[in-house]
Amino acid sequence: MKDVRSLYQKHAGERCFILGNGPSLNKVDISKLASEVSFGVNSIFLMSRDSGFHPAYYVVEDNLVFRDNKEAIDAYRGPTKILPDRYARELSDTDDCFTFDMDTSFYNKNQRDAYSIPHFNSGPEPTFYCGQSVTYINMQLAYYMGFDEVYLIGMDFSYSKPPSHEQNGNHIHSHGDDPNHFHKDYFGKGKTWKDPRLGRVLRSYVRAKHVFETNGRLIANATPGGELELFPRVSFNSLFG
């Protein structure tokens, strides 16, 4: 395993794309990202399997996502993996894996100074903070690696729960196809996912937007459609000449 500190400022002044995995991801020509630096997450390997597209970097935050997909994540080749060290230790092959310390205090009700309060790593330390979405970790990684421009795609920022799905507290167990992502098997039958709590996600995104803009950098939303209006909108196709 490699320490994420070796990636600090590696992409200074460059641009990148963060994939959100919503249904709108099927509306863009993903092949245009072949020569771009992109961050893929969670079950993006389903798109790699079907289209041949591989992001440059692959990240997972959610423990349920890692648990349900550990074998597929272990076998996933192509992207450079950047994973919490607690997950990387469970993989059989870590030659292509960088690790970081994941601070989960955002989810800990006993930590009153951190619970539901987004923190953002804007320095060289190898600790990145949860904020209700793996995308928030990616925003911190993008800042850490020095990217000046970050473009979001597949950020539909809306969820529906099919009547067949069963919810127990914060956990939702799927009994059918997933309508909320680019592939029906993303959180398909037999998988468990967490209530997205978009209000808390938005709070984290506000923090990321502030840090980027305060330091002269940009996060923009290149998603076709969707409900995320916090970041300035740009046309995906306009970014390619």
Question: Would you mind describing this structure in some detail?
Answer:
The structure is a single chain. By secondary structure, this protein is an alpha/beta fold. The chain has helices spanning 45-51, 63-75, 85-88, 134-144, 198-214; strands spanning 2-3, 15-19, 37-41, 57-59, 80-84, 97-103, 127-129, 149-153, 166-168, 171-173, 192-194, 218-221. The strands form two sheets. Strands 1, 2, 3, 4, 5, 6, 7, 8 and 12 form a nine-stranded parallel beta sheet that branches. Helix 4 runs parallel beside helix 5 (198-214).
Summary of the model, kept short:
By secondary structure, the chain is of the alpha/beta class. It has helices at 45-51, 63-75, 85-88, 134-144, 198-214; strands at 2-3, 15-19, 37-41, 57-59, 80-84, 97-103, 127-129, 149-153, 166-168, 171-173, 192-194, 218-221.
Keywords:
241 residues; 20% strand; alpha/beta; nine-stranded parallel sheet; single chain; globular
Report strand %. Answer: 15-25%
Number of strands: 12
Distance between the termini: 38 Å
Which residues sit in consecutive blocks of at least 5 with pLDDT less than 50? none
Query: What radius of gyration results from the CA coordinates?
Result: 17 Å
Tell me the structural class: alpha/beta
Mean pLDDT: 94
3D shape: globular
How many helices does DSSP assign?
Answer: 5
The secondary-structure element order is EEEHEHEHEEHEEEEHE
Largest sheet: 9 strands, parallel
What level of helicity do the residues show?
A: 10-25%
